[in-house]
Amino acid sequence: MEFEFDDDKPIYKQLVEKLKLEIVLGHFQSGEKLPSVRELSTMICVNPNTIQRSLAELENEHLIYTKRTAGKFVTEDENIIHQLKQELAKDKIDSFVSDIETLGLKIEDVIKLLKERKNS
Amino acid sequence: MELVEFKNLSKNFGSKEVLKKINLTIEKGKIYGLLGPNGSGKTTMIKIINDLLQPTSGEILINGCEPGIESKKIISFLPERTYLNMNMKVSELIQFFKDFYEDFDEKKAVQLLHKLKIKETDQLKNMSKGTKEKVQLVMVMSRKADLYILDEPIGGVDPASRDYILETILTNFNDGSSIIISTHLISDIEKILDQVIFINQGKIVLNEDADTIRKKKKTTIDKLFREEFKC
C-alpha cells in the first residue's frame, strides 16, 4: 500500500478518506481483517496514535468493527459500503461542480459537454 | 501520566540565559518533535533530561523523581555527536550495550543491523558517517526504554535511508513509551509526530497536537516553522 499525504491537512482525516476508498474499491473487502495498528503504522510510516484515531473514526461510522482479541474487520453490511460509495461519488460531484462554476459554466452546459464526451 | 516534567526551569551559562522558566510536560505514549532554530536551547533541554547538565533554578522530574541512576535506566539517548570508541567492532559494541543496559535486546539489534547489511565484524572507524549514525540509532532503539531521546537522528543520513530510519523508530516505539525527536529536517519527520514543540531563545513558543496545527493553520509544520523563525 502506497499512501501519500499532504502535510498541510490533518493526517488522520486524510487517512480516513484513503481507507474509505480502499474499502469502496474492495482492496479491503467486506468482512476482511485489517492490518494491525502497528502494521499499518510501519507500512505507511505514520504515527500509531494517528492510525488509532483514524480507525476510531471509521468504527464510529460503522465501516469497521472490532472483534475482541482478533482485531479490526471491515463491515459485513454491504449496504453501508454501498452508501459510502454514493457519498464519495457525491463529494466528487460537489467538487467538480464548484470547479465548473468557477469557470463560469452552468450545469446545463456541463451536461451537454458530458453527453458529447460520452458519444465521442 | 507524566513521564517528564519541567517546572519553571531555567538554565544559565554564565550571564547568558539559555532556558527561561520552562514549563513542559512529556506524556506517555507520544512522539514529540522538539523543534527550534540553532542555539534555541534544544540540546540544553535534552542534556538536562539526561542528567548531563543541572538546572540553574526550577525543577525537572522524570517519573516523579529527580534525574539520576533510575532515570538513566528508563531513558535511551541518542546524542548529537558520536561518543563511541571508533576502534570497536559492531560485535564489541553490542556486548558493550548489553553490559551497560539491562533492557538491551541483542536479538533485535542484530536483526536490525542485518537488515541494513551491517556485519558484526565491521569496525566503526571504517564506516561512513551515515552508517555510523545508523548503527548508533539501532543500538539506542534496541533498548526497551520508556523514553527515547533522539537528537538529530537523521542529519547525516541520505534521504533514501531516512525512511528506513523512521520505520525503525516506529517499529520499535512500543506501547506506553515516548519519543522526543529534535531536528531541523522537519518535513522528513513531521508525519510521525503526535505533538509539536517549538522553542525559541530559551522559551517554549508552541506546544500543540500536530494534526490540530494542520487543521488550524492549514499549513505544514515545516512551513509554520519557516514562518515563525524567519530571519
Q: Which labels suit this protein?
A:
heterodimer, A: 120 residues, mainly alpha, Arc Repressor Mutant, subunit A, two-stranded antiparallel sheet, 2 strands, 61% helix, B: 231 residues, Rossmann fold, six-stranded mixed β-sheet, 9 helices, 9 strands, 35% helix, globular
Largest sheet of chain B: 6 strands, mixed
Beta-strand share of residues of chain A: 5-15%
Please give the order of strands in the largest beta sheet of chain A: 1-2
Number of domains of chain B: 1
Radius of gyration of chain A: 18 Å
Helix content of chain A: 55-70%
Kindly state the number of beta strands of chain B: 9
Mean pLDDT across all residues of chain B, rounded? 92
- The low-confidence runs of chain A, each spanning 5 or more residues with pLDDT under 50, are none
Q: State the separation between the terminal residues of chain A, measured CA to CA.
A: 35 Å
CATH architecture of chain B: 3-Layer(aba) Sandwich
User: What is the assigned CATH homologous superfamily of the largest domain in chain A?
Assistant: Winged helix-like DNA-binding domain superfamily/Winged helix DNA-binding domain
Question: How many beta-strand runs of chain A?
Answer: 2
CATH topology of the largest domain in chain A: Arc Repressor Mutant, subunit A
Net shape of chain A: elongated
Oligomer: heterodimer
Return the CATH topology of chain B: Rossmann fold
CATH superfamily of chain B: P-loop containing nucleotide triphosphate hydrolases
**CATH class designation of chain B:** Alpha Beta
Structural class of chain B: alpha/beta
